[in-house]
Structures are given as C-alpha cells and as structure tokens.
Specification:
Number of strands of chain C: 11
CATH architecture of the largest domain in chain A: 2-Layer Sandwich
Strand order of the largest sheet of chain C: 1-9-8-7-6-2-3
Chains: A alpha+beta (about 350), B alpha/beta (about 260), C alpha/beta (about 350)
Largest sheet of chain A: 6 strands, mixed
Helix content of chain C: 25-40%
Number of strands of chain A: 14
Helix content of chain A: 25-40%
Strand content of chain C: 15-25%
Oligomer: heterotrimer
Distance between the termini of chain A: 33 Å
Distance between the termini of chain C: 65 Å
Number of helices of chain A: 11
Number of helices of chain C: 12
Radius of gyration of chain C: 22 Å
Shape of chain C: globular
Structural class of chain C: alpha/beta
Order of helices and strands of chain A: HEEHEEHHEHEEEHEEHEEEHHHHE
Order of helices and strands of chain C: EHEEHEEEHHEHEEHHHHEEHHH
CATH superfamily of the largest domain in chain A: Sulfite Reductase Hemoprotein, domain 1
Number of domains of chain C: 2
Strand order of the largest sheet of chain A: 5-6-7-12-13-14
Chain lengths: ~350, ~260, ~350
C-alpha cells in the first residue's frame, strides 16, 4: 500500500511506527503498573480486533498492542475512550478535555512502580497510589519524563534507572524496652542493608542513624516489635539515570527523607523547568537531557522553587553522575556543540 | 517480707591462687556451706552472673576454681585480694553423700571436672572412715591444663590414682583419654558396694559412663554432674531445662539411670 | 453480680477505678506491625473502654504486663545490690479466658517451681485482678477448646462488649463497690464451645518413645522453614524464659543495674555455654525442643499441658509455620513409632 503518514503525529497519539509499513503499536499508559483486572479483557479485545493478535508487556508497564493498521487508528481511539476516562481521568484525576481521539501526548513514558505495600512484605509505601497522584502533574504533556516508584530500597521498581526514581523508605522507632537483644536486626541489617546496627554490651541495639537506608529489614525480623515504622511515609528521590547509546548512567540521590507532599510539589515544577530549559519549545527529549542542559544547580533552583521541605528532608548539594564511557573524553567537544539551556537555547540534538 | 532469691550477697576475696596457665582459684570469705557438688551463682558488677561449683570450702571460706572462658571469668582475672565478689546459693542437688558413704568410691574426671568433686575428695582424705576406698581417674588435655597439682600428689598417698594426659607425655602420667583407663577399676572386687562419679565435658561423661557399663558397672551406681547454662538457678529462666528436668533444681548431679535418657 | 452500662457510664467508672488501679487492655498501635501499614495490638494502659480492641486477637499476650519484656531487677554499686521499687497502685487486666489460663501455666514456673517464688512476678501478681473478656467465637488459629482453656472462672469481673455499652458480671467485692449506683442486670458470661482448629493432644508413653521422637525426621523440615526469629515465643502467653544482663552507667562504671529480658529457646545462643558448647545445634532441634515442651515436657513435670491454644505463635510466624499442624505431624510420628515392632536389642 502506498502510505503517506505523518509518523510524528501518530507517535504523539501513542501509536508507534512498526517496521511493517502502515502498521503501528499502541502504547497504553498504566500509571503505577496496577489496574483493575477488568482492563485485561479490554486490552485483549483491542489486540484481537485491530492488532495482529500479539500482546507485549511494555518495558515501562504499558499495555502494548502491536500490528494496528493505520486505517484502524480512529476506531481504536474511539474504543479506548472508556480506558482514558476510566484510568486517566477517573483513577488518576488527569485533566483531559478530549477523550475521543486517543492519547493526547506520548504515553509510553509511563510512571512505573513495583507492587508496593499493597502486597509486598518488604515495601514501605503504596507505590501505585503515589504514581497515580503524580500522573496528573506530568500528563498529558509535551515535556517527557521517566518516573518510577519503588516500594523499598531493594528497588525492584528501578528507581535507579529513571529520570526521577522514588524509593519508599521508613523512619524507624526503637522501643528499647521491647528489645530482647537477640541481634536478629543486626544480622538482617548487615546481610540485606547497610549494617548500621550493633548489639551493645548491654544486649540492646546501637544505631548509626546517618547511614540507615530506611528499608525496614529490622522491623521485618524483630520478634518483639521493638523496631516499628513511624506512620509518616518517606522517600528517597533518585535523579538523572538514563540508558542509551551515548551516556548511559545510573541515578544519584537528589533528595532523601522527603514526604509525599514534597514529591507532589516537586513534580508540579517539572513542566516549568522543562519549558524553561527548552525555551518553551517542546522537543522529543526526556528529562535526563534537560537536567544536563540546565546543570544540576539550575535544576535544583527551579525544581525546589516554592517547595516546602519537611524538616527531615535532605537535598543533594551537588550530584556527580558517573557515565558509562563508551568512548574516551565523551564530554570534550568544540564549544559550539556544548549543551545550552534557557532563553536562546538552540534546538537540535 | 518476701525473700528475693536472686539477691546476691557481697563476699571479700581472701586469696587468689594460680592453678595453671588458664585457671585460678578464688578464696572468698563466706558463711555459705554448700553440699558437695552443688553450685553457686557468682556475680561481678558490670559483667553478670555465672554458675560455679565450689572446689573447696571450710570454716568461713569458699573456693572457686575458674577457667578463663566467657565474659564473667575473663573479668575475674582482673580482681585482687580485698576486692568484692557477689554470691547467691548454693543451689541444686549435689553428690549423693548417703549413697557414697561406706562404699568404694570411684571418681572419674575430665579437665576442670575435677573442681566439683575436689571438696568431696578432701572429705575422703580428712575422714578416712567415710568411704572404704577411693579410686581416681583424672584426665587433662595437656600439661598446661593440670589442676590442683598439690592435691593430686596428696591423693596418691591414700587413694588409687590414674592420672592421664590426652596428648603430652610427662613423668608419672599416663597418655590417653580417661575412657582408656576405666578397665583398671576393680569393679568386681567392689562386690556391688561402690559409687562411680563422673564429671567432665558432656562427651567425656557419655563415653566414660558407657565404658563403665562395659566393664560391669551398674547404671544405678553411676552418677554424673551436668554442666548447663544455669542462669537464674531457681527454675525460672528456662536456660538449663532438659525435658521435664531443670538442671539447676534437679541436678546438676543425676544418677545415670535418669541422665542417660536426658537428651537436650 | 450483673450490670448493664452505657459506654458513658462505663467510662465514668473506669475513671474512678483509675485512681486506685492501673488498667491494662489490648490496645491498637497503628502502623506498628511487621509489614507496612499493618497494626499491632498489645497490652497497654487505657483511658477509655473504646480503646480496648475487642474484635481482634491481640498480637502479643498480656504476660507483658506481669512480666515486662525488659525489667530492671537490681541496682548495684561497688559493694551492694538493691531491689528495684514499685508503686502501690493495683492493677486490672482485661484478658480472654485462654490468657487467664496461661497465667496458671506461667505461675507453676514463676511461683513454686523448685520451691522458689519469683520475687518480681509475685509482687506484681499480688496486685492484679483479671477482667475476663467474653470470647465466644475465637479465630482460625485458636484451639483453646482442644486444650481445655476456653473457660476460666478465676476472674474479678467478666465483660461482654456491646455496640453501645457493656455487660458486666462483677464477682470481686471491692470492685462491686464501684457499681453501687448502677442498675443490676442479669448477665452470665458465655464461652466458646468449638474452634475451627481441633487438635488431638499427643500422648508420649515413655522416655524411649520420647527420645525416638527427638530423632524422628519429622523435625527436619524446620531446618529450612524456621528462621529461628523467636517471634512465636515472644507472642506466646506461656513462654517464660528470660536472660539476665548487667548494665553499667557510662558516667560511673561502678554503678549500674541488673536487668532481665525475654529470651527464647528459638534464638541462637540460648543454650550456649561459656566456652562455646551448644546443645541444640539445628533449627530442627530448637523447634522440637519448643514443641515438646508445650505439649509434653511441661505436662510431665506439672501435670497439665503448657500450651493454651491461643494460636499467637501461628499468627506471628513469618514463615507460615502452624503450631497446630506441627502437633498433627507429631501425632503421626508418635503413632509411627509406637506401631513399630519392638526391637529385641
């Protein structure tokens, strides 16, 4: 067939070009990676009716439907109205003026999360509940950002490999009078975490608070509830990871011991930051590149603007990422090729 | 007023005798008169308590022979005469004096196991009419581990003695485990009028008792002394329980008929 | 003597009682559970009837009131030890019949075993009165009926919790005085008559069978299943074991205190001697030691079973080891051993 398709437009509409001409893969966002199971049937219907019968678990927890013919896109978009209204509008409170024409902006950068404390014994927070709260702050939007929420520092949710990664952590309370001095927490902390606990000569526990990662292993193993989590939920926020062909790198800590409230204020600043970096001209670039262009200090200034930090919160003074050096001197280049941000920033990448 | 059985009493150290490289005897001022084979709870502020059997006692004093193991005993070696120790007890069931009286007495000890029977051996020495005869088999790991050298010498004059080292060869000492010398006990000659006391590490006691049986001894004529983690010493804390038995209350001395079935 | 009280009236009397008594009951500690966003229910002083958790089993047993997890017993200086003191307030504890029966079990050890009374338990116990919480339904892990601990009579008062008030049967004369202006109402406390879980009590005829059971492979599975955390024994209403530790003050090392703290046969080091000798070397051994104590060894010494079937050990086990299922396996093992032909050796 002789196709003439603006693939940038279909991409914005969440239909990604296939190697087979005229075919597309629909990416449906699943904020927090957890949904009412009824949507499985819904997605199955799309796959069987308009797709090629295959289904793919998106790498970022999207429902991926391959093999949709260009001609079917309007029918598919009409069908997923129910999904958009149920999941985006209903479940996440996303403001969406038009639900008739499919996803309004690229949706593949779904907010991922592990199952969290809905199920997992290790988790400290309800991960997908947070993902659903972040969703309306960043979607729909033309500035792209990869976000993940992990329930605990095990980081099955891969907070370390996203632009922003939240890790649910807990502040522990030590009820000395309930401690039987068995040392199980000491072993658990050194086997699973950072080894901040020590059994002292009086058969009680000494803790090096400074290096506690807030994982909760002490609470999990304690036979007497001598270690309990404080009711307030806290997070570590990791920043600036990316994969890719040029400068892959793992995230570093941006904030720690921040509350959910801080995180929501932070993401409310994301569109403002992205717009400033790109001089209000959206580009198909995701967050990590934007942070690089602005530099960490500028990023910090804009992102924390007006954010009321909780008293326990700590913020990285500076961040020194370590990139995979596929080639030497990756950052050494002619001045003209250096990244620029803000007013007058040239586009092109 | 309710009596508090875990309240320790202060006792002044009169003398400290070095027995060998790792073992010391502490003599303290005390009017406690334990039964032979009973134990006491010895406490040192800052460290805690440990069950210790009296290796000797007399008019106004008690002796404890302590090996340098564990927190309490390590701390003990910093003490000097005139310092205080704290004691409570004595606790438990000691050697069956009535069952021993007038009989041939066999004492088989391994290592520090000599300490809990030493006061009884002194009695035998001082009161020759108390038993018909005494046969001692006393084993130590090596020359450094030999305890109560002077006492062992004095036993030679009045008792039949077999002294043995597991490894070292020295003059006047046999080589090998105590079990290897059990066949030297003239059990038949005792004509069923004897008592065998075995005390030492658990494995030594187990195999020594079996060796005695092999050589014709009767189960009911053998007694053993259990060493367990006695902590409260009054049957409350549970550390020394085996089956329905509390070693601190029902022991540490058990007749072999009962002891053989006690599996930890 | 039966009474019917509105919550308001009940709380008014509770406040009166608090002048003379410390009042303990199962209380909810939100989000303090082992897992995130789970609660624990444990004994603590209450200020109102509404604070009492009536619809769930408490995570921990009321033994914590009478024998705190950590208790200072003596203060010491260079040359003397001194007992800790205690105020003279009396104590009321709200507890279920199984937990009241668990008192008897612990008291055979704490008061009387070997002719010794535990000074600290006894001095607290003498101040305590029980308010029995009616328990007619139980929970899935309970087997009090099998253990014969579903009923208790040695209570000062018994209570049934209603939506908007309470029914009381007050037996204690001193307590009756607080109800002088309350209208009498007939109330007879009820007991649970059957549990979902039924346990057949193991009968081990002699030491020979007992030692054969100790060597039976049924315990092997616990080497991989049990993590020896001891949670079962801390939650247990009848476990009595403790360890004593001396603590000295950092500002003056010659002065300090002697404390005792819960301990457990499940925890590494419980049977370790100075010098390192250990008697129960595997988790199969420690499990066997605990289970046989609960349903055999204690009975051999004191005439009745130790376990009261409250099921807290099963509830608390992070590895999903069920105590009642373990007893079932034990029964199979006993049967297997007893049915074997007697060897001639």
């Amino acid at each position: 067939m002789n196709h003439d398709i603006d693939i940038k437009n279909t991409r914005i509409n969440c239909f990604r070009q296939s190697k087979i001409k005229g075919e597309f893969l629909l990416q449906m966002r699943v904020p927090g990676g957890t949904l009412d199971a009824k949507y499985l049937e819904f997605v199955q219907h799309i796959c069987k009716t308009w797709g090629n019968g295959l289904f793919h678990f998106g790498m970022r927890q999207c429902f991926n439907v391959p093999g949709i013919k260009y001609e079917s896109i309007p029918a598919v978009n009409a069908y997923i109205k129910e999904y958009l209204e149920g999941v985006e509008v209903g479940m996440c409170n996303v403001k969406m003026d038009d639900t008739e024409h499919g996803f309004p902006t690229i949706g593949g950068r779904n907010i991922m999360s592990c199952i969290g404390n809905e199920h997992c014994i290790k988790a400290n927070v309800n991960t997908f509940a947070l993902a659903r709260k972040i969703e309306p702050l960043i979607f729909p939007g033309h500035y792209h950002v990869k976000i993940a929420v992990a329930g605990c520092p095990n980081d099955c949710g891969k907070a370390h490999f996203n632009d922003f990664g939240m890790i649910g952590i807990a502040k522990m309370e030590y009820h000395q009078e309930r401690c039987i001095g068995c040392g199980a927490c000491v072993d658990a902390c050194s086997h699973h975490a950072t080894g901040v606990l020590k059994l002292n000569e009086f058969n009680k526990i000494d803790k090096d608070d400074c290096c506690c990662v807030g994982c909760g292993e002490c609470t999990l193993i304690c036979p007497a509830s001598a270690w309990t989590r404080l009711p307030t939920k806290f997070f570590r926020v990791l920043l600036g990871a990316r994969t890719g062909k040029q400068e892959a790198r793992m995230a570093k800590t941006f904030l720690t011991w921040v509350t959910e409230d801080v995180i929501l204020q932070l993401f409310a600043n994301w569109p403002k930051f992205s717009a400033w970096v790109l001089d209000y001209k959206p580009e198909y670039l995701h967050g990590g590149h934007l942070i690089d262009r602005a530099g960490y200090q500028k990023f910090k200034e804009i992102m924390l603007d007006g954010v009321k930090l909780n008293p326990e919160a700590k913020v990285a003074d500076n961040i020194y990422w370590a990139e995979t050096e596929y080639r030497r001197d990756i950052h050494v280049k002619p001045l003209a090729e250096h990244k620029k941000a803000g007013p007058g920033a040239t586009s092109g990448h | 007023m309710i009596i508090n059985p875990v309240m320790p009493k202060p006792c002044k150290i009169i003398d400290i005798i070095r027995e060998n490289k790792n073992e010391y005897t502490f003599r303290v001022e005390s009017d406690i008169t334990p039964e032979h084979g009973q134990f006491l709870q010895l406490s040192i502020p800052k460290v805690g308590e440990a069950p210790i059997s009296a290796s000797g006692f007399g008019d106004g004093y008690l002796d404890f022979t302590i090996r340098s193991v564990g927190k309490v005993t390590n701390e003990m070696f910093a003490l000097k005469p005139g310092d205080m120790l704290f004691l409570r007890g004595a606790y438990g069931v000691g050697w069956p004096i009535e069952e021993i009286s007038g009989k041939h007495l066999v004492v088989i000890t391994g290592g520090t196991g000599l300490a809990p029977v030493k006061s009884l051996l002194s009695k035998c020495l001082n009161e020759p009419e108390f038993v018909k005869s005494v046969f001692i088999i006393s084993g130590f790991k090596n020359e450094d581990g030999i305890l109560f050298k002077n006492d062992l010498e004095s036993y030679k004059k009045n008792f039949k003695t077999v002294y043995s080292l597991d490894i070292d060869k020295i003059d006047g000492w046999e080589v090998g485990f105590v079990t290897e010398h059990v066949n030297k006990i003239p059990i038949k000659d005792y004509e069923d009028n004897y008592a065998i006391l075995v005390v030492g590490p658990p494995v030594m006691m187990k195999f020594t008792a079996l060796e005695c049986l092999k050589n014709g001894a009767k189960e009911e004529n053998i007694w053993v002394s259990f060493e367990r983690k006695m902590s409260c010493a009054i049957g409350k804390c549970g550390h020394c329980r085996i089956d329905e038995v509390y070693v601190c209350l029902d022991g540490p001395v058990f007749n072999y008929k009962q002891a053989k079935d006690l599996v930890d | 003597m039966g009474f019917s009280l509105s919550l308001e009236k009940a709380n008014a009397i509770l406040n009166e009682l608090k002048k003379e008594y410390r009042i303990y009951a199962p209380k909810r500690f939100e989000k303090q559970g082992r897992y995130s966003d789970t609660d624990i229910i444990r004994y603590d002083e209450i200020d109102s009837i509404e604070e009492i958790v009536t619809g769930e089993k408490s995570t921990y047993s009321p033994k914590e009131v009478l024998f705190p997890i950590t208790q200072t017993i003596l203060y010491f200086t260079e040359d003397e030890y001194r007992e800790t003191k205690m105020d003279d307030k009396k104590i009321l504890i709200f507890m279920r019949p199984c937990d009241i029966n668990a008192r008897k079990v612990q008291e055979r050890i704490y008061m009387g075993n070997g002719g010794f009374d535990d000074f600290y338990y006894k001095r607290l116990r003498e101040k305590v009165k029980f308010v029995m919480m009616e328990c007619t339904k139980g929970w899935d892990t309970c087997f009090c009926v099998s253990m014969g601990t579903n009923k208790a009579t040695n209570y000062a008062a018994a209570v049934r919790f209603l939506e908007d008030g309470i029914l009381l049967d007050v037996k204690d004369e001193e307590l009756q005085g607080y109800f002088a202006d309350v209208a009498k109402a007939p109330f007879e406390v009820e007991f649970i008559e059957g549990n979902e879980t039924v346990v057949e009590l193991p009968q081990i005829p002699d030491k020979k069978v007992l030692n054969a059971i100790k060597a039976h492979p049924m315990w092997d599975e616990y080497n991989s299943r049990c993590i020896a955390c001891g949670a079962c024994t801390i939650a247990c209403g009848t476990c009595t074991c403790f360890t004593t530790t001396d603590l000295f003050y950092t500002q003056n090392a010659n002065v300090g205190e002697r404390r005792r703290t819960y301990s457990s046969c499940q925890i590494d080091g419980f049977d370790e001697m100075a010098g390192g000798l250990i008697f129960r070397k595997s988790y199969a051994d420690t499990m066997r030691y605990k289970v046989l104590h609960k349903v055999h060894d204690y009975k051999e010494r004191f005439g009745e079973n130790m376990c009261v079937g409250c099921g807290r050990c099963t509830d608390r086990c992070p590895q999903f080891i069920s105590f009642s299922h373990t007893i079932e396996k034990l029964n199979h093992a006993i049967k297997e051993i007893c049915e074997q032909p007697v060897s001639q050796s």
